[in-house]
Amino acid sequence: MSRIFIVEDDKSIREELAELLRNSGYEAEYLTDFSNSRADILAARPYLILMDINIPNLNGEQLLKEIRRESDIHVIMVTSRTSETDEVLAMSYGADDYITKPYNPTILLLRISAVLKRFAGVSQVQSYNGLQVNDAKGSLADGSREITLTKNEMIIFRFMLDRKGSIVTRDELMTALWDNDEFVNDNALTVNISRLRSKLADLGCEDAIETRKKQGYILR
């Protein structure tokens, strides 16, 4: 399920948009505090951002410019501005699409689907503590070495990476593996996490996964 992050300062609009997205099968989150927008958005690790131009502190175009310095997250600008200059500027800063308000919800969903399909299958290389994380290859690399993860290890690592800094329970990890047609019992989960820890340590990330007794794990 694709996680979409909404950057919109109008409470009623963002809540309606979140409901529309959830009813259409997406995960939806949004900002409520715009004092540290860039960091909060990047920490959420969304697959796509719906961003208004007129937002507090940094405007959407400047925020997009800052995000593009660190990430290739897909971005659709959603705004009441109708100027061609605004559209050209937003696209030049790295927006993947641009739609004006008031928009038809069906058209918005089609635009979102089009962006997601456009990039489906494109190898996304992200980073974790200096390591390159390649989903397509199922590998971690530090520039000179590359270690391949098993399918289960990559599912566990990706699930924890998407929630970095937050506690992930064993039940959540078991569900993530089960949803990917993998049956893993509790002992096998422990073995997979142990092997993942060892591979991260081999690449210089010792103690990357912290165990919280009776709670779960945290990827630091």
From TrEMBL:
One of its GO terms (cellular component) is protein-DNA complex. Signal peptide: none annotated. Residues 123-220 bind DNA. The keyword Transmembrane helix does not apply. One of its GO terms (molecular function) is phosphorelay response regulator activity. May play the central regulatory role in sporulation. It may be an element of the effector pathway responsible for the activation of sporulation genes in response to nutritional stress. Spo0A may act in concert with spo0H (a sigma factor) to control the expression of some genes that are critical to the sporulation process. This is Stage 0 sporulation protein A homolog. It comes from Ruminococcus flavefaciens. The lineage of its organism: Bacteria, Bacillati, Bacillota, Clostridia, Eubacteriales.
